[in-house]
Amino acid sequence: MPTELAATSGVDWSQIHAVRLLGVALAALFLLWAIRRMFGGKK
């Protein structure tokens, strides 16, 4: 595992940042949906 970590030191950080942003956006959407479902009920 340590050798693999050293090999990925030259990884494209912008890609990782984009994936992280996507994950955060999906989590926010899920939270919004859960809150709407809790308070608004079914449409």
What does this structure look like?
79% of the residues lie in helices and 0% in strands. It is built from 2 helices and no strands. The longest helix has 28 residues, at 13-40. The radius of gyration is 18 Å and the shape is rod-shaped. It starts with a helix and ends with a helix. The chain crosses the membrane at residues 16-35. Keywords: Membrane, Transmembrane, Transmembrane helix.
Quick take:
Keywords: Membrane, Transmembrane, Transmembrane helix. It contains two helices and no strands. With 43 residues, it is mainly α.
How are the SSEs placed, and which strands pair?
Layout: H1 2-7, H2 13-40
SSE run: HH
Round the mean pLDDT to the nearest integer and report it.
81
Quaternary state of this entry equals single chain
Distance between the termini: 49 Å
Taking Cα atoms only, what radius of gyration do you get, to the nearest Å? 18 Å
Total number of helical segments?
A: 2
Percent helix among the residues? over 70%
Q: What share of the residues does DSSP label as strand, in percent?
A: under 5%
The profile of the biggest β sheet is:
none
Structural class: mainly alpha
Question: What general outline do the C-alpha atoms trace?
Answer: rod-shaped
Low-confidence stretches: none
Using DSSP, what is the number of strands?
Answer: 0
